[in-house]
Design a protein that fits this description.
543 residues; alpha/beta; 7-stranded mixed beta sheet; 32% helix; 26% strand; binds cobalt (II) ion
Length: 543
Amino acid sequence: MALKTVPTQPFPDQKPGTSGLRKKVPVFRQPHYVENFVQAIFDTIPDRDGETLVIGGDGRFLNREVVQTAIRIAAANGFGRVLVGQGGLLSTPAASCVIRKHGAVGGLVLSASHNPGGPEGDFGIKFNTRNGGPAPESITAAIFERAKAITEYRIADGPDLDLERLGDATVEGMTVTVIDPVADYAALMRELVDFDAIRALFAGGFRMRFDAMSAVTGPYARAILEGELGAAPGTVVNAVPQEDFGGHHPDPNPVHARELFDLMHGPDAPDFGAASDGDGDRNMIVAPGLFVTPSDSLAILAAHAHRAPGYAGGLAGIARSMPTSRAADRVAEKLGIRAYETPTGWKFFGNLLDAGLITLCGEESAGTGSNHVREKDGLWAVLLWLNILAATGKPAQELVRAHWAEFGRDYYTRHDYEEIDAGAANRLMEGLRARIGALPGTKIGGLTVEAADDFRYVDPVDGSVTEAQGVRITFTEDARIVYRLSGTGTAGATLRVYIERYEAARNRLELPVAEVLAPVVAVARELADIERLTGRAEPSVVT
Ligand code: VG1
Ligand code: CO
C-alpha cells in the first residue's frame, strides 16, 4: 500500500444544499467526483491530524464503494482513526450519536435521505461536525469554494477493507474500527425513554406496525422494538435495507408509505403505526384512522415529553422550521418557554441546541429531534411516542384529539410541484417577492392578507444572517401560505407550497382537512399564478 497524490480538475456543481451534496448516481460515478468532494470536505477540517472520523450511510447503491473511497482518502489526510458502521451502515441519527460519544472531529453520512436510490436514483454526501450536527452554512460554503478550486487529492492505494468483520484494521497507519451500527444508539435510547414502560405496553397486547421502507432503520427498529421491547415479531416490516429501497421513495408520508397509511385506516389497524425514511432521520406517525401531521406530532411530543426520563426536567425551549405549523408555539406558550422559528434544514437547530436554548425541535417534513443528538431522529420520535402512550395509558388517537381540544387544531397540507423548469420556478418566486410590499390589506378569494415577507433568519447565538428562506403570507382569517424552492432535489426545481389554517372552535376540530383548506389552496394557486408559470394544474405530491 502507498499514499498517492492524484491531480484533478474541479467540478463546478459541488454545492451542498439543504442537507449535503445530492446528485444522481451517474453524476457521482464520474471519475474523481467523489474523491474531489471528500478531499474538499477534509480540507475544511484543519485540526484533523490524529483525530477520529465517523463514516456510514443508508445502504443505498454506491454506499459501500464510497465508504471504501472515503476511508482511503481519510488515511492519506492524517486522520488517526475511522469508525465505520458494519456493512457501511449508519443511520443519520446514529452517526450523530457516534460522533458525539466518541469525540470524533466529524463524520461523513452517505445518503440522499428520502430520495429514491439505485443505479439511476440519487446519492448524497453529508458532512457533520464535531457536535454531531450537519455542517453549518459557513462550512458548507467553504466546502463549495474548496471544491471549485481543487487541483489534487490524496488517497491510499490498496485492497478493499472487510466491512463485515467487527473490530480493528489498519490502513496506512490509520486505524479503522468496524462498529455495530446499532449499539451506541440503542444505549442512548435506553437513557432517554422508559424501556420498562414500553415493554409492559407491548406485553399487554399493544400492537404496532413500523415500516422501515427497506432503508437503514430496519436493523435499528428490529433490534430495539422487537428485540428489546418485546413487540411481536413482524412488527417491523421492510426491515432489510436494500440498495434501491425496493424501488420505492423511502419517504414516510401518506403518499409513499401508502400501505401503512391504508392499514392504519382499515378495520385491522394496529394501535400505532410509524415509518422512517432512507437515512432514518424522519418519522411518520399514524394512529388508527388518524394521520398525525409532523407539525402536530412535534407539538404533542413537546406537551408530554416530561413523561419520559430524558426530559423529566422539562424543556428549555422549542424550535420549528418556518414552514412548520405553529402548533408547537402554542405548547411553548403554555409551558412558558421560548419558541424559535428557523429556516428549513436541520443545520439551523445546531446552535440553539448547543447553546441550551431548546430541547426539542422539528420540521413539517417529518423530522423531530431533541438535544440527545444533533440530527432529527425517526426512531427516537417513535420511542418517545410509545413512552407517552405507555405513561398516559391513552390510545394515540385520543391523545391527538385531547391536544386539539386544548390547543386548537392547525389544519395543514403541503403541495409539491416536482421537477418543474428551474427558470419558471425562479420567476414564480421573484414574482412573489416583488409583490410582498403591496400584499398586506388586499383581499383574495375571501381571505385578507395580514402580512407578507421573505423569511430572513438571524441566528440568536452567533448573529449569522440567512436571507430569502421562503415567502410567507399570513391572513387575518388565521391562515398562512408559504412558498419556497426545495434544496434537496436533483432534477429541475421543486416548488413547495405549505398551506395551513388554525381552528379553535370545538365544532371545527374534526372536519376533513381538504375541506377546511380548500379556500386557502385556491388562494395559494391564484396568488402565485402557479398553473400559468409552471404549466402544472395540480401538484405532483400532496401530503
Ligand atoms: C427537505 C425538507 C427539510 C429537510 C430536508 C432534509 O428539504 O423540506 O425540512 O430538512 O429535506 O431532510 P427541501 O429543501 O427539499 O425542502 V432529509 O430527511 O433529506 O435529510
Ligand atoms: Co432523511
